[in-house]
Write a structure and sequence with these properties.
The complex is a heterodimer of chains A (about 350) and B (about 40).
Chain A (H helix, E strand, L loop, with lengths): L7 H18 L5 H14 L13 H11 L3 H12 L3 H5 L4 H7 L1 H12 L4 H8 L6 H11 L4 H13 L1 H12 L2 H4 L11 H18 L4 H16 L3 H25 L3 H4 L2 H29 L20 H13 L6 H26 L1
Chain B lengths: L1 H39 L2
Classes of the chains: A mainly alpha (about 350), B mainly alpha (about 40).
Chain lengths: ~350, ~40
């Protein structure tokens, strides 16, 4: 009987699952992922179910064919691409460097993790949390450190929901009131042709520079091409809605189900959560500092707060930047400017993961 | 630690290189589209 096989570790994991379900349902913290993850943790820690039995278990099949076969994260990126508007980024190309600047936090955290004794693949998987990109975190964890998949995914999604709490203190510490009040010059209008050609050009360019980023980048840009071309509305609609929703269910459930008591109840998990928080904070800081560095050379100054939006929690980071900016200057409307680095950060995180993969696999 | 430092440096350079090339491509794309639309509407 299952009841006789329950262990204290399992009971602890039920509590962890309960916390995530509470955060998802009552507090609406990233519910699309944390709800299935929380439920996956619960069912993976029920004894004798065989749900995660290799070769046979139902949820094992979702995990094996969806994640281990590296199908789900790229398909999620197809949907993300169909939802993304590259307009703010195309209107002001220099803002993509803020997306790059924020990735410095990923590598700083990687280095700290390595100093603390994690192996190189583990340190890379922990560092990428700072990219604030759930599917990329999951993709990299599956490739480099599958035993950390659950912890890193939960850390990434939890901290994404906490961006309004994590980012503002860092932003205010690194900027003056005058800098936060900078009003940026209006950006140009982006023609439709440019929006259509961009995903094709971006695919060519980024994959030639970092080939290992191809699985995620290709699907991201294909999804965007669906959207911008305007001739495949059914495909764009399906990618944004039905497909995205279906794979999100399998993704969340599979990721949660990898978090059994044996893999989660390790001292390393505490490091993952602490370093994940560090990654978010350092990425925010590096984005803001890079924006200030860019201002040394720019005639039309940028508001350094938008550097924080290089942490690609889309669109939460951009909203936080707008909020902090309007506190300094009520007339300032930073949201559309912040969307540029916010979306560039997604590309930056994919590139960062691609470099990790090319060097560690 | 040496290997970690190499990955650290390569990672940051790799991301910035990728973004730099993309930046150049975006400017080129904007220029080409602007020229093409100017030619269409004399």
């Amino acid at each position: 009987m299952g009841l006789l096989a329950v262990t204290p570790g399992m009971v602890f994991m039920w509590v962890v699952a309960g916390v995530l379900l509470y955060l998802a349902i009552a507090r609406q913290f990233e519910p699309l992922l944390l709800l299935p993850i929380g439920f996956g943790i619960l069912v993976a820690n029920l004894p004798l179910t065989g749900l995660m039995e290799p070769g046979e278990g139902l949820i094992w099949r979702f995990y094996h064919y969806g994640l281990q076969w590296e199908v789900i994260p790229p398909v999620i990126f197809l949907g993300l691409g169909a939802l993304t508007d590259f307009g703010p980024m195309l209107a002001r190309p220099s803002l993509i460097f803020l997306g790059a600047g924020a990735q410095v936090g990923v590598y700083v955290t990687f280095f700290i993790a390595r100093l603390l004794g994690m192996s190189l693949p583990e340190a890379a998987t922990t560092g990428i949390i700072g990219g604030a990109d759930g599917p990329t975190t999951i993709y990299l964890a599956t490739r480099l450190a599958p035993h950390m998949l659950g912890s890193c995914a939960v850390a990434a999604y939890s901290y994404m929901a906490l961006v309004p709490i994590i980012q503002p203190p860092v932003m205010k510490l690194l900027t003056t009131q005058a800098e936060r009040a900078i009003v940026m010059k209006k950006s140009r209008k982006v023609p439709k042709v440019e929006r259509i050609l961009f995903p094709i050009v971006a695919t060519l360019v980024t994959v030639l520079v970092v080939p290992a980023s191809a699985p995620l980048m290709v699907m991201f840009m294909l999804g965007n091409l669906f959207k911008e071309s305007g001739v495949v509305e059914r495909l764009s609609g399906a990618a944004q809605n039905e497909l995205m929703n279906i794979v999100t269910i399998f993704l969340g459930l599979s990721v949660g189900a990898t978090m059994n008591a044996a893999t989660f109840l390790q001292p390393k998990v505490i490091f993952i959560f602490l370093l994940g928080l560090t990654a978010f904070a350092v990425s925010t800081a590096s984005g803001v500092l890079f924006a200030k560095f860019m201002n040394l050379f720019l005639k039309d100054k940028i508001n350094p707060l938008i550097g924080a939006a290089g942490v690609s929690a889309v669109p939460m980071s951009a909203r936080v930047v707008h909020q902090v900016g309007s506190e300094a200057n009520k007339k300032n409307y930073l949201l559309m400017f912040a969307m540029g680095p916010n979306i560039a950060g997604v590309i930056g995180t994919i590139l960062a993961a691609g470099v990790f993969l090319s060097m560690l696999q | 630690m040496g290997e970690a430092l190499v990955i650290f440096i390569n990672g940051i350079l790799g991301v910035f290189l990728g973004m730099s090339v993309l930046y150049g491509a975006m400017h080129l794309l904007a220029y080409v589209v602007k020229r093409a639309t100017k030619e269409e509407t004399p």
